[in-house]
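Table S2 (continued). Query chain:
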Amino acid sequence: MLIKPFVGIGTGRCGTKSLAILVDACKHTDVRHEHFLTSWYDPEESVIQDMIAFLQGDDELRGLVSLSYLPLVDRLRKEIPDLKVIHMTRDREKVVESFMQAHRKISRLLYSTRELAEKDANRQTELHKWLHPLAGSWTIFPEFSCNTDTDIYITTEESYQMYWDFYINEVTKLDNVFTFPMEGLNSNVELDRLFVYLEIPEEDQVFLDTRQYNYG
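Corresponding output:
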């Protein structure tokens, strides 16, 4: 039987890590969360080829999960036409609240923007791009055009809302996406629906009792 690999995508703070853990717990699966970190706009071709090579392993179900794989879906499908795509979803305000809590309501990039403006007002004209302000590797997030006369005062909460809106809009441009709500990871009935989509044989399915990464 041909084993069809998958990629999992989502805004972040929406169950992507839990998705990888729960599917990887099944027998004959190898699912990795943020194993390959790729730039949103200029991913390295060598990294893409490594992703393709991993996903095409035919000895078990292979999966890669990360918010940064959204821009790569069409590219991966050219090499793997039967690639499955799972989009983890969560309510907009819950995602925003989770980001705010996880990052202590701090926007590193917005703070830097304000700091530069305060030090040298003339430098405002150079700040023509606004990047999603998360900790870690900022290159994995999309950029937003920024009017430095007004957008410099966007709040951290508003920045996460902008990001959520942008991400969801980009997902709607994709065909054949399996949408799965974060809350479904806590339900064996819904998890079974996910396993059926991934064509995991019943004898290989494992339903973990402890799901510490997903409190909802």
